[in-house]
Write a structure and sequence with these properties.
Layout: E1 22-24, E2 30-35, E3 39-40, E4 43-44, H1 51-60, H2 66-79
Antiparallel strand pairs: 1-2, 3-4
Bound molecules: zinc ion.
The site of zinc ion has 8 residues, from strand 2.
């Protein structure tokens, strides 16, 4: 893994800039691994989500923003299998 991949959500792949997008641990501290869309109070917001569900989320959010969004969604989907949350998941 390259070091510039460190500060991105390990669930959805979105960049975590300045901690503003970071999720929270159950003691209220910021998570260094996950964004607040995926992770809140020390747990995943959608614990039953699969990698395919996350791909759909990307299509339904960033993927809606024209051609640029489609490219971003595609790139996001490509990196999902390398993220910590999905690395050990069975497809
Ligand atoms: Zn996330």
């Amino acid at each position: 893994m390259q070091s510039n991949f460190k500060s991105q959500c390990q669930s959805c792949g979105m960049p975590l800039k300045n901690g503003e997008e970071s999720g929270t641990e159950n003691d209220g501290s910021k998570s260094s691994k996950y964004c607040h869309y995926c992770y809140k109070d020390g747990a995943f917001v959608s614990p039953d989500m699969t990698i395919d569900d996350m791909k759909k989320v990307l299509d339904d959010t960033v993927g809606k923003d024209g051609v640029k969004g489609k490219v971003l969604a595609w790139m996001g989907k490509m990196q999902l299998p390398g993220l910590e949350r999905w690395r050990n998941s069975k497809e």
